[in-house]
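thought: fold this chain, then report.
action: predict
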Amino acid sequence: MTGEYDAQLLESVGVRRQRLGGALLHGRERTRRGADRTVKAIVAGLAVAAVLCAGCVGWSYVQERLGDARAGATAGAAATAESPATATASTSTGVRS
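observation:
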């Protein structure tokens, strides 16, 4: 008799664990979650992907603008640095531009 009670107890514990695991994974309404949850996940994934793409494009734009500004500043500084040297070299050789 004790063996039967133990077997029933173990079986009931196993069934309870299965039910709790199923409830944890699927919730109360398993059948209704199928399409709604999938559509929401797809829309959320697309929204996150769109935000990430927009962020990458914005970052690229900012980096390009900063690079253009730096290149312009460097070119302007190089042009002003070369101008007096060119003028001095031109006047020393007697050639004027």
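thought: worth noting. DSSP finds two helices and no strands in the chain.
final: tokens above.
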